[in-house]
């Protein structure tokens, strides 16, 4: 069972991973704005009250990166999505940390103030901070994918965040051609639209609508 919210980038990263592995996960929707993650029942599953959370027949795994690694390690037919080779694995780990520590963190600086604190403005320094992260990703993409020539779970994490933030902080194609080529590669996946396409676009639209409402 995956406790999830399709608007959430980390949740969509797990959904992409499951689809890539051919897994059909039972999903239970957790509405963060309604406080579903703060109920006693959910707090027992994850005291940090974040999503996604995976309940694999009683084994509870929290945090999207940990869940993706767990799924690939346990259910993957090979190690392509999360290589066992120490050098390749280190590159994937580095990209995962870049996603959580830079891309997702800088997106949260903007989204949380609008969604949870009722703000209607986006400070310019936060916009610039996101734009700098775009440039870092552009420079990172020296190959077809974020960790090298093959697609890995790091791509799923990064695309889930990028597809959400670019609807709020524009990503100029002329300045970031590698990112757009990478996005186009991932969009060719047969499960991309179901697992990430709509959710990524919808989150950006939801944030902008909430901004106007505030």
From TrEMBL:
The keyword Ubl conjugation does not apply. The keyword Magnesium does not apply. It comes from the Eukaryota. One of its GO terms (biological process) is glutathione metabolic process. Residues 1-79 form the GST N-terminal domain. It is an enzyme of class 2 (transferase). Pfam families: GST_C, GST_N_3. Its EC number is 2.5.1.18. Homodimer. Belongs to the GST superfamily. Theta family. This is glutathione transferase. It comes from Anopheles funestus (African malaria mosquito). The gene is GSTe2.
């Amino acid at each position: 069972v995956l406790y999830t919210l399709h608007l959430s980038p980390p949740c969509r990263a797990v959904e992409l991973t499951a689809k890539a592995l051919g897994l059909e996960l039972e999903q239970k929707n957790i509405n963060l704005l309604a406080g579903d993650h703060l109920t006693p029942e959910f707090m027992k599953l994850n005291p940090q009250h974040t999503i996604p959370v995976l309940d694999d027949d009683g084994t509870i795994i929290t945090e999207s990166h940990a869940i993706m690694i767990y799924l690939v390690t346990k259910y993957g037919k090979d190690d392509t999505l999360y290589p066992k080779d120490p050098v390749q694995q280190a590159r994937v780990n580095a990209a995962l940390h870049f996603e959580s520590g830079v891309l997702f963190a800088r997106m949260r600086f903007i989204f949380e103030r609008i969604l949870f604190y009722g703000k209607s403005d986006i400070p310019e320094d936060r916009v610039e901070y996101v734009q700098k992260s775009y440039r870092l990703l552009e420079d990172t993409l020296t190959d077809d994918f974020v960790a090298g020539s093959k697609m890995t779970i790091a791509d799923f994490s990064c695309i889930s965040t990028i597809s959400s933030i670019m609807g709020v902080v524009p990503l100029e194609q002329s300045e970031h051609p590698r990112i757009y080529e990478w996005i186009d590669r991932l969009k060719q996946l047969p499960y991309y639209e179901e697992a990430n396409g709509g959710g990524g676009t919808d989150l950006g639209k939801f944030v902008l609508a909430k901004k106007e409402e505030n």
